[in-house]
Amino acid sequence: MKLSPGELSPELELLAALVRPAPDPGSLQRLAGATGDWQAVIAEAERHGVAPLAGRRLREHARDCVPAAVLDRLRRRLRWNAARNLLLLHELDALQEALQWRGVRIIPLRGPVLAAAVYGDPALRECVDLDILVRRDDLEVVCEALRARGFRPVRELNPEQRTLELREACEVCYGREDGLYIEPHWELMPTTYPWGFRAEAVWERARPVEFDGRRMLQPSAEHSFLLLCVHAAKHGWDNLRAVTDVAWLLHGRQVDAGEVRELAERARCLRAVLVSCALAAALLGVELPRELDGAGAGDDALCRRVLGDWLRTAPERLSLRDWTLRWRLLEDPRDKLRFAFRALLAPGVNDLDLVRLPRPFFPLYYPLHAARIAVNYGLRPLLRRLARG
Q1: What pTM was estimated for this model as a whole?
Q2: How many CB atoms lie within 10 A of CB 24?
Q3: What is the pLDDT of residue 298?
Q4: Which of 203, 210, 231, 258 has the least CB density, counted as fewest CB within 10 Å?
Q5: For a pLDDT cut of 90, what percent of the chain falls above it?
């Protein structure tokens, strides 16, 4: 995929140049010098989760081209992110210590641990929360440890909702009053996404690593890369940070590309990996290994679809467009059928919130879910378009 002139907004073009693994100082100075709306640049940097890295690069390569107030705001953002990631690491230490004596192990996913490994400094990557992989049998013990640390479920569920969540979802979210969130995962993807990438495969190849005096389990480099790609695909590559993570891992040659492709083919998520790699190459100038340089015309169209969504100044809530993107990412016809069934018919926790039905009437949740989907993704968007004239 090759970008056409004007395919990116000036702000996104500058950000892509700033966060690439191997920046071109001359190009950065030219783009920064031509920037007229720095508030728009900051807004896009924060929206795409790359403000800390972008600010660092501006100070290093284009300081004279940037207003002092802009550099100061980005510096404050970097310091805030560094403090937040330190808090997340502190909570990770405390949680591991609390679980160790019970014989429970966890695997941190993405987050500040990955940031330190990939970027060399955890402050350079924004982390919304801390994701940890736990074994299903240990979930309640982990949740008890989180409650002891002052975390509470973001959403309280009744027993029926809890049973459905454990069967259909892959994670729960715990938050605390200071704004920190930790999400224990017992699987890598909810059942709506029928890729064959399973948590057990990560556990089998996890290895202990030393990090800043800490010893913790981490996925293999290849599984980490696959996780980044499928997680980005799950969210429709909704920000530049997701592509930046992939680009930096590729640039550092930290993964065996042949093994990644083999794992992706086995898990039926190769298209998600190839689109992630194609975006990393087109936007951030990464040279792709032969095994991962296989995007076809359909994948190229998906890449341009992602870039088009980035240019929408006011992204709407999840819409039918998002569901069609996820449908196109699935390769196996059986996976497409499973996705369609679960997305359009299989009831979820929200349906049980809408109305409480006695257990014998549970099958009625299926048409109820279909009706709710039709209203949310069909009728309401249509009414909004009509209201806008």
Answers
A1: 0.90
A2: 13
A3: 65
A4: 210
A5: 61
